[in-house]
Amino acid sequence: MGAGVYAPICHWVWGGGWLGEMGLLDFAGGTVVHITAGAGALVTAMVLGKRKGFPTQPMPPHNMTLTIAGAGMLWVGWFGFNGGSALAANGDAAMAMLVTHLSASAGAFTWMVAEWIRYGKPTALGAVTGMVAGLGTITPASGFVGPAAALVIGILAGLV
After folding, report:
1. Which among 42, 116, 118, 128 would be 20 to 30 A from 158, CA to CA?
2. Residue spans of beta strands (DSSP E) within 1-141
3. pTM value?
4. Which residues of the chain have pLDDT under 50?
5. pLDDT, tens only, 114-135
6. How many CA atoms lie within 13 A of 38 on its CB side?
7. Which string of b and e fits 80-104 if b means at least 16 CB within 10 Å?
8. By C-alpha distance, which of 53, 56, 36 is closest to 44?
């Protein structure tokens, strides 16, 4: 079933499909992954409906320590994903890792600043959320942009 969903989207981007023909560049597969994951999440959300208590009841994670530890592992692992997409240990891989780090950092910091302005204090959960936003948004571009663009991407991810 997964191949029936994932393979056509891959073709759109890499196999001479319509997105590739329009000039879409996807270095580490982030566009393909996020289109399929987003569509799957949307369908699941539509089938399941709203959470009980949402949005009137706060829903923090069960264990913040594990949330932070998991976020750290995710951040480190993302270097292998984006850097490894260069298929060599060279300057392209190093730049992909650098821009990955900058975007995640900018996303985390921007989310914290936005929380500080809106709620009067930043939170660790907000920092983690901004970090994940920065990682997700830089992935397709990680082989094509430099440090300044990575900061812009991370800041925008943290704001949105």
Report:
1. 42
2. none
3. 0.85
4. none
5. 999 999 999 999 999 999 999 9
6. 8
7. ebbbebbeeeeebbebbbbbbbbbb
8. 36
